[in-house]
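Page 42, continued from yesterday. The earlier attempt failed because a stray header line got pasted into the input along with the sequence. Redoing it now with the clean sequence only.
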Amino acid sequence: MVRVEDLLARHAPWAEGDRCWRLTPLEQFMWLDDRPDYPLVFLVVLRFAGPIDPATMADAWRFAIARHPLLRATIRSEANRLFWYAPATGWPEIVVAAERGTGGTELRGIDLEREPGLRGSLRETAEGSDLELLFHHACCDGHGARMFLQDLALAYIVLSGASSDEDPFFRSDAALLDDRGSYPSAAGVSLWQRLKRFLRFTVLRATPAASDVSAAASRLSRERPDTALGHRTHTFSANEIAVMDAIQQRFSATRNDIAVAMLFAVLGEWQRGCRVSPRARLRVAVPTDIRSRADERMPAANRYTYVFLDRRVSECGDWQSLLPGLQRDLQERRQAGRGAEFLDGLGVAVRYRRVMQWFLRRHNCFSTAVLTNLSDPSWRLRKRLPVDEEGLMWLDKARCLDIEIRTPPLRPGTRWGFGIFEYAGRMTISFRYDATAITPAAADAIMNCYLTQWRELLASARSEQLRDPVIAAS
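This time it went through. Structure tokens are written below.
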């Protein structure tokens, strides 16, 4: 039977010695912007029906965390420089809880100077087990989390003897982490243009989503950090989503484009209902992956940037009228390297760490809301695991019923965070909100408003299917 030591020797030789890397500007920004009441962490939960062997999962965990050094590293400071330090021993282990999980897991903070940026637990449930993975955003983005999950699942089936292939793993090379801070530069953009855009971004500040919580209640909530973040979620079935691709063709838009336009429409409606000035600026941050094909072999890391989209409250009508302009702006910003300009700005800012830290603590509103589209985090893994007729993947004798993701980031002033992801043909919309500024009833209203737009789109898609036999056949 294959042992974890054999897998480590073949597939993670870099884990034999201590490793260090300088923090990139993005990693420093994430670390400095972290705070107990708005922790920069995200949670991934896999819900299984059927048995998961704890001992085999513990070995699989050891293999996976060996393959991804930044997930077992802590931050150290030497000569006023910050380093990731990944030791060859003393790695964090997965926590196995025999008692049944109580659910409702919250995003607890991680102190990267004291502990690594990944926590894992395997908890017994009435149906089987929940595998919970808590990542700190400074050491890992959504793509990196997916890579760790791939290694964990594939190691489990190899170590359990459920796979006849002893090498189902995707290729990985820790040497590529040396290049994780590099990115394509913004070509043809002068220093003066960059400075002008930076000043515009700083001076023309975004307006936070209006609060419906009294000042006294907000202060009380801030004294209890466990209540600072709220969460709502909804999953559309595979049958509902199956009709959407055809309707997207009619709009010549991606699902991400539509999601952004809908978010601006909801923001505009909310701000107008709260009597916010029609001239108030709304800004949505769209995380953008900057990986190339060569980066596919890079272990878990942060390889993304932000693209920002702005609209006045008065400009935010229905999402269909917003869609063409937002599509054009998003495409132009990506082609012009605006995401690279953001990273360039961070590179300058982190040279003055104390000033940057002071600036971040001033409760500036960088964006009104965040929209993160993770697509299907299991799509590569599903190519190497058994998948049943419902599109659910199997881990030996355990069936993965669902994947739940709770995404950051929220910060003072950025009170809404929407995440979209897929699994087994279904699409889940996750809404995280600042509970010190938004009541649960208001959160329900915001979520329902966003979902209503998706439901109307799905209804339109079904209607078009019935009218057009070509679309119906597809």
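Notes: The chain has two domains: 4-171, 191-376+408-473.
Reminder to self: strip header lines before submitting.
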